[in-house]
């Protein structure tokens, strides 16, 4: 059998089962999600049993893993912003002076912009830059703040992110099944990737929230919190930002 | 039942916000709890939430909202290049002999540089750290000094280009369409972010002028509050003029270029913002690049771009896809391509040192934080609005406004009052996302001009941020003010500025042309 026909066969197999593969992939992700869901209860367990050594070291490892993941993702994502500036500025000059426009370049700005928002949100959360109403918050004790973050995580953040995640299943899987692309014929064929940013955002926010809620549990148990990446606040300390 | 749940949801969201958890998730989380209650009592369709991702997706891909990260980048970059410091110092020296000169400098610098970031807290803190110590050192009365700083810090919201106007303009544009679609408004046409920029320009400049006039009058009546300071002996005033010009010209040119390109319709706000951001990179590189190559590259790139635009403005047709090339056009296009090459290489060379000394990385990180903060709130507020609508809350608000005593003026007054009070504890962005989509369609349906309404709302919120005891700007300024500035002095200091604000609001209500004339002229 020569190489060309083998590849042709491969392609026809792929074509036939692309939908199935994606459906299976979706089911697999969902299963992973269900398995990991109980982990979200960790801060509560910690609060009940704060003095078990094993639980402490596991929690520390989880916090540090999540922190470095969010931080690294943010440090990569931030470079998309200068890229966005250059891309849009370039298209403006190319279009208005030389009458040239490339749909792909034009649309790539959308991809950069959406990626910055959805991938940078967790790093922003880690850096404590999502706004709070601080009329009362600034006057609270460290433990009260920790309590706010712990309760907020379970009562507000987790339900919201789970609802977004759950409802985006059909939205995203449909886009994947047809490998949805731009409405323009010469646009980027990657709208399904763009839509996938929404569940990624939800997962990252749940994870980063978990790291902060675990810290809150440690604070409420009167224990020290683990080291943190640069440019991030010391959570539940008297002074918010020490850079 | 649904009405009760809708009202309770709004009330509980406001209460929940006081707890101090993440604003975006408080808004969306509280509404989700009420959605669950609604499902339990049979007043809310759970399927309603299926459309969530379909509503988030357009938020992150809408072209006009791309102006937000670009303007934020421009603002943060300008801040990093320490333009405000130089400008304040040289202008303060130049206007020193004038009574109240330093105070006027603060107002002008605030108007000029606060324009792009538009986040109240950041602007007020920067201005407070920069100018408050200098003013106190020169024996300004603490009340006048802190009042003028707090007021100038909020100017950034109303003077275009500012991100809050981008957001407000986007929401207004949606609301205007909604008013036409669902409320039977006969008017056709659209309102754009550019229109709101044009509409806010004149009221903003009037505010700046009135602030400056107030400071000079105070300085004349009570010289002790804003003492003049002579130029040092033997130094020619030209030195100060030259220094001020050197510090002022680049940012002024940049802002004029951005505003001009947007208001003249040459570029959309997003594209204008990208040009501004590129200009800010070059300006920063020119001022702070550690290597001479970086500085020169920035200068050449900027000149290249400037000449490119000049050639284009002469009206030569330089489009590649044309069949009737004339000799002149060939020369122009070769020249333009050469200039574009210089600009591209220059930009690259000037960015390298900024990358190397981490400044570009820091600016990008800060920009990412502010951008994500804004958009996550946008997502949270969208979920809130969706559920509020699911309860029929928009009808409820419409009915409430209809029942307001005094017809459409009563409704307007009610909305303004509610926004004013919300401004005590919520930032511009949250209020715009949550309140405007609810109240603007019914208001616009009574025939109000959308630009006029937008400018009024912006002025109103700006005033709210200044008003003691809760005003945002005051909180932030209090945080960075030295202890000799008492809180009472701060409150006393902003009072006259609040009066000026109210005067301008009344002026815009009496003479809507202040807000609507310029956009109408631009449209033609």
What would you say this structure looks like, in words?
The complex is a heterodimer of chains A (243) and B (524). With 243 residues, chain A is an all-alpha fold. Helix content of chain A is 74%, strand content 0%. Chain A has 8 helices and no strands. Chain A has helices at residues 3-36, 42-48, 53-77, 80-98, 103-126, 134-137, 142-177, 191-220. The radius of gyration of chain A is 22 Å and the shape is globular. Chain A starts with a helix and ends in a 23-residue tail after the last helix. With 524 residues, chain B is mostly helical. Chain B is 77% helix and 0% strand. The longest helix of chain B is centred in the last third of the chain and has 32 residues, at 359-390. In chain B, 56% of the residues are buried. Chains A and B meet through helix 3, helix 4, helix 5, helix 6 and helix 7 of A and helix 1, helix 2, helix 3, helix 4 and helix 12 of B.
Q: Give the largest interface pair and sizes.
A: A-B, 65 and 78 residues
Distance between the termini of chain B: 50 Å
Contiguous runs where pLDDT drops below 50 for at least 5 residues of chain B: none
Helical content band of chain A: over 70%
- Could you tell me the radius of gyration of chain B in angstroms? 25 Å
Strand content of chain A: under 5%
Report the portion of residues of chain B in β strands.
Answer: under 5%
- Poorly predicted regions of chain A are 1-5, 239-243
Number of helices of chain B: 23
Reported for the largest beta sheet of chain A, the result is: none
**What is the overall shape of chain B?**
globular
Oligomer: heterodimer
Specify the helix fraction band of chain B: over 70%
Global mean pLDDT of chain A = 85
Q: Rg of chain A from C-alpha positions?
A: 22 Å
Sheet with most strands of chain B: none
Supply the helix-strand structural class of chain A: mainly alpha
Which structural class is indicated by helix and strand composition of chain B?
mainly alpha
Q: How much is the average pLDDT of chain B?
A: 86
